[in-house]
Amino acid sequence: RNKLPQYNTLKDVAKLLHQSKNIIVLTGAGISTSLGIPDFRSKGTGLYSRLASLGLSDPQEVFDLGVFNDDPTIFYSVAKDILPTTDKFSPTHAFIELLQHKGKLLTQYTQNIDNLETRAGIRPDKLIQCHGSFATASCVKCKRRVPGETIFPDLRAGKVARCDACIKTVAEAKKAAGKKRKRGKSGDTWRKKRYSEDSSAEEEEFEIREAGVMKPDITFFGEMLPDTFYKRLLELDRDKCDLLICIGTSLKVAPVSEIIGLLPPDVPQIYISKTPVTHVEFDIDFLGSCDDVVVELCRLVGWELKHEMIPEV
Ligand code: OAD
Prior knowledge:
Blueprint: H1 10-19, E1 23-27, H2 47-50, H3 65-70, H4 72-82, H5 91-101, E2 105-110, H6 116-120, E3 127-129, E4 132-139, E5 145-147, H7 152-157, H8 164-182, H9 189-210, E6 214-218, H10 227-240, E7 243-247, H11 259-262, E8 269-273, E9 284-287, H12 290-301
Helix pairs in contact: 1-12, 8-9
This protein binds 2'-O-acetyl adenosine-5-diphosphoribose (OAD).
Protein name: NAD-dependent histone deacetylase sir2
Family: Belongs to the sirtuin family. Class I subfamily.
Cofactor: Zn(2+)
């Protein structure tokens, strides 16, 4: 794809915002960092720099399905660092909601798992959570799905969450087997009592151990993205999109990074982030805080972007 030469300045983009009716916004962790949520790959502050101490050959292994299945304690020991502790959303989230409000948002494809797009008011029919989110969690064994909040206490405590439904099933199976065993047995009452007291804690531990591990419905490396991602992109959005804005992502993870190459070459492509990317060429790059860039863009277009973090003028 050849770079489109007619777009060079924020004013050009402001004009594009005026004209465009079907904007794809592709977002990454950078749109939430102003809220104190770390991104993944920023040196020093990103989650992956902080994970050097875990002894993993690659910090991305925290989100590797095989590693999770072998040892879920690794994920559970770091999950609290990325679990959203805030309901607040950033000015950039507000900007995307403003595009929706103006009837210009075709779809927001977000790689973020903090679910703050929903808090900002992006409607489900306008949002693809490409890597899932903490909004729900499922048991890896019995597949039962629960609201994400159910496992938040365990996530915050760094403790592997187990499936309540499995625990119940294991307990019932044990009880049924125990009844069978007891039948026909007799003996000293005191000894029997002692036996049951000592074993109850052990039994409970066994039941928990046998139960499936709960995994937040985040797309790990080694898992397919939700069907809606491909369906929406290839069957609806690709031919409709008239502007692409990528915000706060390093575009290091496929297939999301491939969205850009799939769009028709005449669709203008804009990049807003603190760090430049070298493996993708955009028509315009705005390097800096995305909140600052979108505030300036709205000012140029004449849109009022209201947010508590934006000083009133
Ligand atoms: P990265 O951490 O790879 O990239 C975040 C980008 O945002 C970097 O280029 C930062 O410079 C930039 N950035 C940070 N704060 C910013 C700010 N305030 N304003 C503008 N730019 C800012 O995060 P992603 O690209 O989202 O997967 O990572 C993609 C996927 O990799 C994630 O979804 C995650 C990870 O493995 C899963 O969780 C499954």
